[in-house]
Amino acid sequence: MLSTPAEGVCTPPSPRLPRPQPNGASPVRRRGEEGAGCSPRRTSAPEPPDCAVAEKGGRTGQDAPVQRARDGQPLRVDDAGAELVDLLARSGLEASLSWTGGVWRVEPAEPGAGVRLDLADAELTGGEELVVVDPELVPFAALAITRADGSRQASDRTVSGRLRPLAGRTAATYPGLEVDGSPGGRLTGVHVVVTDRLLLEADVAAVGAALDALPLVLLGLVGEGRPTPREVLARGLDAVAADLATQLGAEVGVALLSLPAVEGADVALLPALLERAGAARTSRARALARTGPHSQGAVGPLDGGPTSATWDEVVDALERGADVPAGTASPAVVRELRRLHPARHARGAVILFTGLSGSGKSTVASGVVAALRAEGSRTVTVLDGDRVRTMLSSGLTFSREDRDLNVRRIGYVAAEVARHGGTAVCAPIAPYASTRAEVRRMVEEAGGVLVLVHVATPLEVCEARDRKGLYAKARRGEIPAFTGVSDPYEAPTDASLVLDTSRQGLEECVSAVMALLREEGLVLAPAPAP
Ligand SMILES: Nc1ncnc2c1ncn2[C@@H]1O[C@H](COP(=O)(O)OS(=O)(=O)O)[C@@H](OP(=O)(O)O)[C@H]1O
Ligand SMILES: Nc1ncnc2c1ncn2[C@@H]1O[C@H](COP(=O)(O)OP(=O)(O)O)[C@@H](O)[C@H]1O
Question: Which of 131, 159, 213, 408 could pair with 148 as two cysteines, CB 3.0-4.6 Å apart?
Fold first, then answer.
């Protein structure tokens, strides 16, 4: 399933819209050669592309008459959704299309599962074909329904079937394609090397060795779910193109193409994608790509390029603040890599203590703050539970909703601190795993590192301490929903460190946190004694 599905707004079909006239009569031809994809379609004549649809099981699009679901009401998608559905249909990919709350989600389906389409209240049965139209109501894909599940009103209603392309969308330039800095270009008659990450020297050597003809264009994939930000990839590919041009004695262009990552389907989408991008559709066109561990399921290291070990070594060296071994990447690419993988001690960090009231969160957090300040390499912001409750979250109760809001606010502020390279130390109870996960997400999205410390002092010890007399009140029923007594605490399973202050002294707890921070490279190891 997709980790980062593409989303776009879907307009519910309106009975007042003019009916589209899908062209479903043309035969579906056989799948093109691997890597060569479909023949170019350069006219607007309504002719289906030379792509096959999946032919495993069920009916193919070839023999299915196009009938319109819901008495002619097609499914209308926005531009972004249309581009993706079009590529999926042209690639013969099995996919899951779901429509939830007016938003399209496109996900590859389980192998062999055909296409799943979740629709709130369409009346669909097996044997029909659902037409997908773009914002101009041009039909461009059809879903041959083989199964319809769920009751009519059920919002999780699912129909299964197979997508096939119709002739509506012409293969003009692909939106979001930028060739040599200008939007709206085409990639006619060129070799194309596709990547969504920066190229190391071994990649460059592999490209040089694999090429048997020119001209060459380095095509960078950017967009949601892709590992390399657009500007970083653009600068990195420009540098590599300049090197390659010198090495090959030929012109090497750079193109960028916006396409959200489709996990497990990126490589399969390439032929259709290159066709839409206008690249040469002969054997001279090639996409040198395979899926790799660092590509987040997207197009990864080039065939013959560096092994994942090489890439791991580069990232590891950068994150330790060390130099990249000479000859691994060009200086310009190293500069971009440094931006992408800053040394950990220069990255923002959030230390989130979680645990029951009285477990020792604030006391240990204060000790860590003092140790960090003494160490001196990081600026520290403290988001102490009590101060947050009086300042940031005054007026909030201890209902689940308010606790979540409180912890989310702490997470938001902490993530902003991390975004600018600082360290935030937070000590709320944060009793719910899902909210802690949200904090982790916010921090990581801001480029920071989250260190979760579970102060797992047993309830009996916390209750015996009862510094504020709150446990006694909670037991008497004077405080409702008290964590550990009458409200839940979900112990983390993803903590970096677990402490128990009933068995570990304060100094030991603080040292354990500081040792972890050093181990993680977030704090530099003390300089050796002279
Ligand atoms: N019902 C209830 N449950 C738990 N705790 C309660 C409650 N009412 C008041 N208090 C006091 O509020 C402190 C916890 O606030 P937090 O902001 O850390 O809680 S939460 O993360 O929003 O759940 C907590 O302080 P600490 O002892 O510092 O944890 C309590 O003293
Ligand atoms: N090893 C320890 N680490 C932290 N606190 C400890 C330890 N041993 C005893 N304590 C006491 O436990 C209490 C913890 O209170 P506090 O830090 O406010 O907890 P919390 O913030 O989790 O509510 C303090 O009175 C502290 O002195």
Answer: 159
Ligand 2 closest atom vs CA 365: 17
Q: Cα(438) to centroid of ligand 1, in Å?
A: 19
Does the CB atom of residue 358 touch ligand 2 within 6 A? yes
**Two structure tokens written together for 239:** 């540098």
Which atom of ligand 1 has the smallest separation from the CA of 358?
A: 27
Q: At what angle do helices 201-210 and 230-248 cross, to 10 degrees?
A: 50
CATH topology of domain 178-340: Rossmann fold (3.40.50)
Q: How far apart are CA 337 and CA 197, in angstroms?
A: 10
429: exposed, middle or buried (Cβ count in 10 Å: 0-12, 13-18, 19+): buried
With a 6 Å cutoff on the Cβ, whether 428 touches ligand 1 is yes
Burial of 92 (0-12, 13-18, 19+ CB in 10 A): buried
pLDDT tens string 90-143 = 776 655 554 444 344 445 444 444 444 444 445 555 566 778 777 788 888 887
For CATH 3.40.50.620, list the domain ranges present in the chain.
178-340
| Vertex 488: Cα angle to 484 and 489 (nearest 5) | 75
Domain 344-519: what homologous superfamily?
P-loop containing nucleotide triphosphate hydrolases (3.40.50.300)
User: pLDDT tens-digit profile of 7-21?
Assistant: 322 222 222 222 222
Tell me, using a 6 A CB cutoff, whether residue 1 lines ligand 2. Answer: no
The tens digit of pLDDT for each residue in 265-287 reads: 566 666 666 666 665 433 222 33
Residue 463 Cα to ligand 2 middle (Å): 11
Pull the structure tokens for residue 12: 């519910």
Q: Angle at Cα 390 formed by Cα 388 and Cα 395, nearest 5°?
A: 110
| Residue 28: closest CA among 57, 53, 46 | 53
Strand, helix or coil for residue 313: helix
Q: Closest ligand 1 atom to the C-alpha of 427?
A: 18
> Which residue's CA is the nearest one to ligand 1's atom 27?
357
Average pLDDT over residues 357-367: 97
User: At residue 381, does pLDDT exceed 80?
Assistant: yes
Taking the whole predicted model, whether its pTM rises above 0.90 is answered as: no
The two tokens of residue 514 are: 């500081």
DSSP string across 345-377:
GGS-EEEEEE--TTSSHHHHHHHHHHHHHHH-S
Closest CA to 95 of 293, 266, 291, 288: 266
Q: Is 435's C-beta closer than 6 angstroms to any atom of ligand 2?
A: no
Domain ranges in the chain with CATH number 3.40.50.300:
344-519
Q: With a 6 A CB cut-off, is 332 part of the ligand 1 pocket?
A: no
Report how far residue 349's alpha carbon sits from residue 448's, in angstroms, rounded to the nearest whole number: 5
Percent of the chain with pLDDT over 70: 60
Asked if ipTM goes beyond 0.95, one says yes
